[in-house]
Amino acid sequence: MKRPQIYIYTIFALVLLLACSTLRASNLIQSKSNPNKTAQYNGHKYLVIFDKVLRPIKSSFIKEDVIKKTAEAKFNVYGLRIHHSIIGRTRNNLIKQTADYCQKYNISCMPIERGSFKVTVNEKNDGKCVTWKDGTTSPVLSPNLPEFWDKLESAIKPIAEASKTHSSIIGAFVDFENYYTDRRRLGDYYSVSYDPYSVNAFLVHIKQPQQKLNYNQTYPWIVENKLQQQFVDWQKKLWISKSKELRNNIDKINPNFRFFVYPGETTFFVDAIYSNWGTEKAPIILAHAGSTYRKTPFTPWHDTVNYCKKRIKFAKEKASKQHLKGQMLSAIYSSNKNLSEEGLGRIAQVIANQTDGYWFFYQDVEGSPYVHDKIMNAFTQANQAILSRNQPSVHTPLQQPDRWIIDIFTKYKKINAGNVPLKYIDNKPRDYSDINLIRANMLAVKAKKKDLIRLTINIDQSDETSSRADYQIIQNRTHKVIQTNSVNVPTHKIEFIAPEDGLYWIGLNTYFKRYRVMQANAPLALLAKGMSSTFFGDNSLYTFPLHERNEPFELEVMYQNQFKLNRLNVDGFAANITTMDNSNRLLRLTSAKPIFDLSKLIRVDFSGSQKPVYRVITTNNLIPFWFFKKEDAILPGD
After folding, report:
1. Under a CB-based contact definition with an 8 Å cutoff, are residues 614 and 557 in contact?
2. Which helix (H) or strand (E) holds 607?
3. Contact by Cβ (8 Å): 318, 265
4. With CB atoms 3.0 to 4.6 Å apart as the test, which of 194, 302, 466, 587 could cross-link to 218 if both were Cys?
């Protein structure tokens, strides 16, 4: 008697299941036809790529394959960079063409616009440059000028117009960084500008006589006349008014059009405009920068992840204090040499867990297509994990070394245990305490399988700052990191067992602290390329001469502080010094006579004034290594 009732329940359950499946399918179709709505309202993460690699930035068209590759890598927003030389109808056609391809592959499109505009000679003469308190100018239009806001609106309006007919366009990325020459650290973004034009516009506003002032006279005059706070308040009200006007004009075209704005960590200028560029229909999205900087080469991965989280937390708290309502994305830079491809993808997951997504600035990547494939593969895996919400622990140690180390391996493919003229471990005690190193260096050691390598480092204690040292042990043949650690003691023993015969690297960084290798049970050599080879004070080291040609021996020296190397002797002869840049911080040092005897090492004596810090890069010697002691090297014929 109960069977009919069971059948009824079963049929009801099947109908309900079918209805839910249909509804879910309907939502998926809707999200595919309009990625804009999905990303904004359904809790999806923004996985944005800002591309300067797949498509040449100066190109006036885009290939479909670029968007196809972007979609295959599971990015859901393509950031279109447009060179400033591409204007008018050509520019608009490029935007629409990109949007069409994005629509085809079910991803969103976001054109990128600069929020800074280079001044003309006449505008500079008219006192319209951004001007800082000290009278220094940046060659961009002051944000108090009507021309500034006219240009900004003229750049964004066509994108908003295109978004009406191309639903894949979700908004515009507005970049307030100053890309023009004479950049100053304080001048990357806008603050209060003391340009003569703005000062006179302010004086008209408060009904006072205008003044004939040069750029370096405006701030002192404002302070002297006790108008500083009034001047600041006037600028802020002007920015608020102009930003509201721009938002209202965009709303008339497309009220769902969103502003992605950089920088995400607010400055005085963006404090005023950010709260006016976000609406209930189109919340603002803050583009935060800098969360992915690894503090130093060789930093343990766990510390890198925590540092990234700390930076993001700080940015979110800062935005919250400004009462900014919207979303936040954080940046990843392909140019960051302190991360491997694996590390870039892992950081993407860290950011997506902490924010509403990330923006990947894909630029300045040198190397073969294989390098690009590795980067895209790493992001494909990361994006799949983010979208599936089934992510492994981001704290799992990385298997790949940093990309700057890989660059060295790639550039010097012939570096291996067989051709590096360094003797194998012999377990004889060595004292290298007369060599002063600082910052990041790469030490080489050769060992047989199961050999135990030991060395003791001592970090300078002349001040009370941290004695932290980060280090990695890297196997040359496989490029794999076999050990990583961070310590914070003045004296530390580094030990590892060689898994096979071969060459190993000890990557070591003590930040700004001087350090020495007090003891080692194996000969050591120092790589003299890339970010390595940074010394402190006076040192005497050995290296091989160049090739068999009759040429001088050359070094490049980059100073890290105001003190300079005042003498360099090569085999007893004073080297010639040539300045290579205007700051006198980069020098080329050339031996006074040719050196081409490959049967012996040459001795190089560095003598500086007041203990300089300097990075030394050998430019044309045969084997790019420094040896601490002559007996550690294998000479020809040995």
Report:
1. yes
2. strand 602-608
3. yes
4. 194
pLDDT at residue 149, rounded to an integer: 95
Continuous segment of H or E residues that includes residue 31: helix 3-33
> What's the burial of 619, exposed, middle or buried (CB within 10 Å: 0-12/13-18/19+)?
middle
Contact indicator for 347, 395 with CB cutoff of 8 Å: no
Query: The tokens of 230 are what?
Result: 């009034």
Integer Cα distance of 638 and 633 in angstroms: 10
Exposure letters 324-350 (e unless 16+ CB within 10 A, then b): bebbbbbbbbbebbbbbbbbbbbbbbb
Q: Which amino acid is at 242?
A: K
What is the β-pairing status of strands 534-536 and 171-175? unpaired
Terminal Cα-to-Cα distance of the chain (whole angstroms):
99
Q: Taking a C-beta distance cutoff of 8 angstroms, is the pair 404, 507 a contact?
A: no
With cut-offs at 50, 70 and 90, classify the pLDDT of residue 370.
low
What residue ranges in 449-501 does DSSP mark as E strands? 452-459, 468-475, 481-488, 491-497
273, two tokens: 């405009």
Is it the case that residue 228 has pLDDT exceeding 60? Answer: yes
Distance CA 25, CA 32 (A): 10
Burial of residue 593, with CB atoms counted within 10 A of its CB: 0-12 exposed, 13-18 middle, 19 or more buried: exposed
Domains of the chain plus CATH, in order, are: 35-119+136-179+250-399 (3.20.20.80), 407-632 (no CATH)
Which DSSP string do the residues of 571-601 spell out, in sequence order?
TTEEPEEEE-STTS-EEEEE-SS----TTS-
pLDDT digits (tens, 9 = 90+) for 39-66: 433 457 999 999 888 888 888 999 999 9
- Are 608 and 614 within 8 A, CB to CB? yes
pLDDT at res. 593: 63
Strand 108-114 and strand 77-81: the pairing is parallel
DSSP symbols for 142-172: -TTSHHHHHHHHHHHHHHHHHHHH-TTB-EE
Number of neighbouring beta carbons within 10 Å of residue 574: 13
The answer to whether residues 105 and 168 touch, using CB atoms and an 8 Å cutoff, is: no
Closest Cα partner for 265 from 324, 338, 179?
324
Query: Closest Cα partner for 443 from 543, 372, 523, 381?
Result: 523
Least confident of 180-194, 206-220, 576-590: 576-590
- Using DSSP, state whether 443 is helix, strand or coil: strand
pLDDT in tens, 78-123: 999 998 889 999 999 999 999 999 999 999 999 999 888 989 999 9
Using 50, 70 and 90 to split pLDDT, how confident is the model at 586?
low
Determine the Cα–Cα distance for residues 550 and 556; give it in Å rounded to an integer: 19
